[in-house]
Every structure is written in C-alpha cells, then in structure tokens.
Description:
Strand content: 25-35%
Oligomer: single chain
Number of helices: 8
Largest sheet: 6 strands, mixed
CATH superfamily of the largest domain: DNA ligase/mRNA capping enzyme
Number of domains: 2
Number of strands: 22
CATH class of the largest domain: Alpha Beta
Mean pLDDT: 95
Radius of gyration: 22 Å
Shape: globular
CATH architecture of the largest domain: 2-Layer Sandwich
Amino acid sequence: MSRKLASVQKVKAIKPIEGADRIEIVQILNWDCVAQKGQYKIGDLVIYFEIDSLLPDIPAFEFLKGSSWSQKLNKYKISTHKFRGQISQGLIIPIRQLTEIYNQINKSAVSSIDYDEGDDLTTLLKIEKYEPPVSNGPLGDLIHHEWYVPKTDEERIQVCAEDVLPEYIKSEQGDWYASVKLDGTSCTAGLFEDMFLVGGRNQWYKGPNMYTETVKKYITEEKLRAYHETTGMYVVFQGELCGPGIQCNRLGLSEKDWFVFNVFTSDTGKMDSYTKCDLLNMLNICEYFGLKTVPLIPSGVKFDFKATTDIDETVENLLKYVDSIKYRTFFDDASPNQIAEGAVFRMNDMSYSFKVISNKFLLKGGE
Length: 367
C-alpha cells in the first residue's frame, strides 16, 4: 500500500505544551504536530504532510527554508523535530491553501479543488517519498519486469491505529508476533513464472551488486527451481539487507547479510497469484533454505495490548516500548547504546500488521 504522504485530515485534538506560550500540539490521526497556538481548532480540516515527504520548492513552502530545506535534494524534507521538549512529526497547512499550493506546483490557475476528509493528495501535489541512499557500490543494469508481489512499505501505527489496534487488543498473546525493525535496505528475491529476480525496494537488478551477491549466499535460481519441481510452489522472499556501507551498519555486522521478514508462494508464478505465508510457514521455508529471519521478540518481553483499551494510550505505550529495544540484545557486535529502529507487529496469519518507529531513533539521526 502506498503511503498517503499528503492528505486531507481532521484535527483530532489540541494539547498544550508545558512552558510554551506561542505553540501547542495539534493531533492529526495519531501524529503529534507542533503548530502556532490558536491557529487550528478541533474538527478543522487541514493538509497533512507525513514525515519522509519531499515538498517542491514553491513560495507557499518558503517558510520551511530554515528548518527543512535540503540543498542536496533541492526540496523540503519533512522530518521529526523537537520543540520545547515536544516531538513534532509532520507538517500541517490550512486547507484553504490547497488551491494556491496546487496552482504553484502545477503552474496553473484553477479556481477551486474539491476535497473530503481522508483524500490522498500525494499525486495531486507531486509529493515524493524520501529514500535514504543505501549503496556503497554500483548497482549495475536494471531489469524491467513487473512486480508480482507487493513492495515493502509497512504502515506506521500513527496512521492505522483505529483500524488495527482493536484487533490486537481483543487477541491473545499467541495470536501475533513482533520482530525487530532492522536498519538496512529492503531486498526482494525469488522465482517467477519466467525468471529469477533480485531487487531492492523499487527496482530489479541484473547485478552483480550488493543485493545479488548477498542473496546468492542463500538462494539461487537452481535451488528455487528444484524446490518448485518438488513442491509445485514458486517462492519469493523479502527481507532487510544490512551490513557495512548500509545505513551506518548499526547492527555492527562484519559483512553484508539478509534477514527475511516476508515469504510469498504461488502455484503459477503469475501476476497477482502470490500469497503471503503465515508465520509458521515462513519460518519453515526459511529454515529449508538456510535463510535468517529478522529477530523475533521473545514472548517474555512482548508488548501488553491488554494494558488499556484506549487507542491513543496504546499508541503512546507502543512508542515508549520500542524506545527500549536495543540492537545489542540480538547482535553481539552492535553498540550497547544503539536503539533499534523500532518493531513490526503482525498477526500470525498476516491478517493485520503495522510498524512502530522509535522517536528516539529518529531524533538521533535515523531515517
């Protein structure tokens, strides 16, 4: 599912910031944003830009020059900031400016734009998603091929809390699992009807490069075709590629490695035929191929979804929970103080899932 980097949202709540006279917290979905005091009231519709949004250089965004302008990207990058001790995630713009912003971006002169709460404005306003550089070497030629499996982009809890948390609150501890969010780059590889493919988040690569060379330590086209001959199944793996030269190598690895978090199977290998394996099948298939998975959080320290039935309070508790996860618990050579990027929560049958990113990680320079 593509992220709504820009959307029409309603102000959910307004909260004071202790000791602040000019600013306050404006809650959008389950995101806290710092805004000028009195500028918004509960129920107002606004344009909301999520963190990781890249905004074009137009006059309407010029007030962001001092805080968000990226000379390298030649765009405004919306990130996590802290004001008077309060974390702010995202940018709010009054909905009355929608037409003005649209006209400046598209160099047009439309008189008005219709909108409703929840509308996705990402394409309309030409907002792009920031992707941090991940490679320490050439990636080689591209292979132009359709994506037969979903691309990796788990929804953050601040966006989907109302939809998913009731399911976890009423579930039992054994119905779901949590895994550590690794700070690397997404890598997808597997067998399709017509060919074996290895890629990053958005592209398939011919190689050789860091993706293809790491993947072939575990799987090859020959191994997957032999598995298909035996089981009748085409298999595709998605995981996080981590190690030297990738995102500061916060796991402390001595060489690049691949940690699987999704496995898809199909009996035809065709478009839209792949289904995501449940937890048990994913672990069994990974064991068969000798693949590592992302670290699973032990049952003894799993999050307690029964602590409260209040959605907002559960979100706050989840954010505090992931701040306590350290990579050193799972990787011996990681720095003892390195906070993990966060955690991913999934039902065992993969019916519901979401990720929680640590604010402490973001504020210390994580992407």
